[in-house]
């Protein structure tokens, strides 16, 4: 099969088209003939040498795919050979064939293309796990999304808004802030020209937001603490602004604040299976009704994976960057 490998750690052009054997599936896994695959930040970090695959995972990048189940251990599952699915993989998605745990597969939502379906798993699993499971965003509460036009951001805005929450989102330009509003945010905030912490306090009549989805870290954390409501929660999912932060523990104590974080890839299959079940029950109907729509910025052929990575690192995109396999 054709695949994209990381020839050595480095810039985007270290991604090379190669020939690899079709992977063998293990117990509990399916083999998927890949139609499309998504590009995600963890793929970039893996290419740079700063995010190694978990033990036993493919060394090929790619954490989400959509395609046809052509083989696998299907006993006790809802799926059969020939079914079209999207899947969260441990790696190996930049290829013509990929394996994934059957419990991390979901049916392609009715009305969506294979490209659209492939854009779903990584961001929807991540947002659901962190915003709704870890940070417990509850009815009537507000959410601030940092990086509102990223793949994670467009998912978080749409999902929270569709479930009735008031959402604010930051972005790097006025144009991107308006896009956040078109996706469902009550207010998009240009973090380069506006003070997001002060503005959020103003927009919430001084209360602050209940939950913040943070993919920046670094010096954002103290500002986030300042605009968090009492009993508020911050869910950290990436550290684009740095791993070190100063935390006012006095506020944490007095106002009963929670700072939590997680990475999805190393978690066990059983954990991800529970998320998949929640997505199928509560989110797939929103996708099939059109209440939430995949946002795809650009599609590249498999052999142009390096160009896709370069686009992601430019941060000029809105939504997902995809590979057509």
What does this 3D model show about the protein?
With 325 residues, the protein is an alpha/beta fold. It has ten helices and 15 strands. The strands form three sheets. Strands 3, 4, 5, 6, 7, 14 and 15 form a seven-stranded mixed beta sheet that branches. A six-stranded parallel beta sheet has the order 10-9-8-11-12-13, with helices on both faces. β8 (142-145), α4 and β9 form a beta-alpha-beta unit. The chain is globular. The model has no long low-confidence stretch (mean pLDDT 97).
The overall strand count is: 15
Helix count from the secondary structure assignment? 10
Q: How big is the Rg?
A: 19 Å
Proportion of residues in β-strands = 25-35%
Helix content: 25-40%
State mean pLDDT (0 to 100 scale).
Answer: 97
Described by the principal axes of the CA atoms, the overall outline is: globular
Report low-confidence residues grouped into runs of 5 or more: none
| Major sheet | 7 strands, mixed
Strand and helix order: EEEHEEEEHHEHEHEHEHEHEHEHE
Q: Which secondary-structure class do the elements indicate?
A: alpha/beta
Distance between the termini: 11 Å
């Amino acid at each position: 099969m054709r695949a994209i490998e990381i020839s050595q750690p480095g810039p985007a052009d270290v991604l090379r088209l190669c020939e690899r054997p079709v992977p063998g599936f293990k117990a509990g896994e399916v083999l998927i003939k890949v139609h499309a695959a998504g590009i995600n930040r963890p793929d970039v970090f893996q290419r740079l040498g700063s995010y190694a695959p978990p033990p036993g995972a493919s060394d090929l990048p790619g954490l989400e795919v959509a395609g046809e189940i052509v083989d696998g251990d299907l006993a006790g599952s809802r799926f059969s050979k020939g079914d079209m699915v999207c899947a969260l993989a441990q790696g190996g998605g930049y290829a013509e064939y990929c394996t994934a745990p059957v419990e991390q597969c979901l049916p392609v939502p009715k009305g969506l293309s294979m490209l659209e379906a492939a854009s779903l798993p990584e961001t929807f699993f991540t947002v659901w796990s962190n915003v709704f499971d870890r940070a417990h965003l509850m009815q009537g509460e507000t959410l601030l999304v940092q990086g509102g036009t990223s793949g994670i951001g467009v998912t978080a805005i749409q999902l929270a808004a569709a479930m009735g929450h008031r959402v604010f989102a930051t972005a790097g330009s006025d144009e991107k802030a308006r896009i956040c509003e078109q996706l469902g945010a009550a207010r998009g905030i240009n973090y380069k020209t506006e003070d997001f912490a002060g503005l959020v306090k103003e927009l919430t009549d001084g209360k602050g937001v209940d939950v913040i989805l943070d993919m920046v870290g670094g010096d954002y954390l103290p500002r986030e603490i300042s605009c968090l409501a009492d009993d508020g929660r911050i869910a950290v999912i990436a550290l684009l602004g740095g791993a070190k932060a100063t935390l006012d523990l006095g506020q944490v104590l007095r106002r009963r604040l929670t700072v939590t974080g997680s990475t999805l890839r190393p978690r066990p299959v059983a954990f991800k299976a529970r998320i998949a079940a929640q997505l199928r029950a509560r989110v797939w109907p929103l996708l099939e009704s059109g209440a939430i729509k995949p946002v795809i910025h650009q599609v590249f052929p498999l052999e142009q994976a390096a160009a896709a990575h370069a686009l992601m690192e430019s941060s000029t995109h809105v939504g997902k960057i995809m590979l057509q396999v």
